[in-house]
Amino acid sequence: MNILGIETSCDETAAAIVSDGRNVLSNVISSQIALHQSYGGVVPELAARGQIQAIIPVIEEAVSASGLGWAGVEAIAFTQGPGLAGSLLVGVNTAKTLAMVRNLPLLPVNHLEGHVYANWLSLPGLEVEPPALPAICLLVSGGHTELLRIDAPDQITVLGRTIDDAAGEAFDKGARLLGLGYPGGPAIQRARVGGDPHRFAFPRASLGGSLDFSFSGLKTALLREVEPFRERDDAPPPDPHALFPPHRPPIFRPDLPVADLAASFEEAIVDILATKTITAARETAARTIMIAGGVAANRTLRDRLASLVVHHWPAAERPVVRWPDFSLCTDNAAMIAGRGWIELQRGNLAGLDADAYPRWPIGSQPPGHAQKGSR
Ligand code: KG4
Ligand code: ZN
């Protein structure tokens, strides 16, 4: 079964074809990063307009790169939520239109469940085994931070989540405070090279030993450290009437210890993420620890988890630590097409009246559809 996936939840427009929920035949992503960089973050209205320009060419490219052509596409999976409303609507409406004109089944996918499912996908020449279960999945993206127990691809239990900022959002806000640009995660990874991760003791919120996370105090602590290095900005203030005022990066004295600050800031985020993930894995006797979402691209986080399992388990009982290929960590449509196959197995089809759900917690019924089946 060849499924076309469509993903438009934020600022990436993506389409992909995946066969049998497993093999990625094509995976096309058009990024708007350049568009949002001058604003220091995603501007929702611009993101929605960018989606509508890119969506058809991206889908055409995914169909053609798969080698199947339209005749080989057997179902259409789309991101129904969560995400930015205007961006989601573009994908939802495109998917419905294609399903109607080609008379194909329409499969609604939760974006976060898609991120988790990326761990099941094989790229051409990069075959992966399905993860051994039960697994712990740390889902860390720009909008979400969730610690999940996975008993089957569609049996997901939330063990903990952020009570304020998401981990990716913390990277983005930290990078903004340091004047490093957007997106923050890769910018901080570049800036921290050669820095001392223990020079600044940024706070780690343990939240009474629960598996929840909090990152907002970290941002305030970073602000306190950089303030003394700020130079006066004599440029006139941005036009207060501008619809989208451009972001003006802060100006610092040249002796700002940017590498040490970036390294210490990253260390605080990675430390708390990795520590709680290991605790969850021990409590659930997990056979696999997997990471998902854009922050799963972070090298320090990957290395930390890999070294902590060696420390905490004897070799014979050690869970496998794994993450998807980079192209499947950040927003993509292969994860949506893959997860769509699971929805098809469960008989979870959408109608042509399908709506977008900007707020839709992982593992729950879509809002307003509580009567349909169980999740
Ligand atoms: O999953 P994703 O592409 O989009 C959302 O659904 O949010 O994640 C984007 C987030 C951004 O916050 C970005 O700063 C973060 O992932 N990110 C990273 C890295 N690469 C991307 N964070 C830390 N280290 C990285 N290397
Ligand atoms: Zn995402």
Describe this entry's structure for a reader.
The protein is of the alpha/beta class. The chain folds into 2 domains: 144 residues, ATPase, nucleotide binding domain (Nucleotidyltransferase, domain 5); 171 residues, 2-Layer Sandwich (Nucleotidyltransferase, domain 5), CATH 3.30.420. Helix content is 37%, strand content 17%. It has 11 helices and 10 strands. Strands 3-2-1-4-5 form a 5-stranded mixed β-sheet, sandwiched between helices. A 5-stranded mixed β-sheet has the order 8-7-6-9-10. Helix 5 crosses helix 6, helix 5 runs antiparallel to helix 8 and helix 8 crosses helix 9. It is globular, with a radius of gyration of 21 Å. The C terminus is likely disordered.
Radius of gyration: 21 Å
Per CATH, the architecture of the largest domain is: 2-Layer Sandwich
Q: What string gives the helices and strands in order?
A: EEEHHEHEHEEEHHHHEHEHH
CATH topology description of the largest domain: Nucleotidyltransferase, domain 5
- Strand order, sheet with most strands: 3-2-1-4-5
| Secondary-structure content class | alpha/beta
- CATH homology-level superfamily of the largest domain: ATPase, nucleotide binding domain
Globular, elongated, flat, extended or rod-shaped: what is the shape? globular
- Tally of extended strands? 10
CATH C-level name of the largest domain: Alpha Beta
Helix residue percentage = 25-40%
**Please, what is the average pLDDT?**
94
Structurally, the number of domains stands at 2
- Which ions and ligands are bound to the chains? 5'-O-[(R)-(carboxyoxy)(hydroxy)phosphoryl]adenosine, zinc ion
Number of continuous helical runs: 11
Low-confidence stretches: 370-375
Note the gap between the termini.
Answer: 23 Å
Largest beta sheet, briefly?
5 strands, mixed
What is the percentage of strand-forming residues? 15-25%
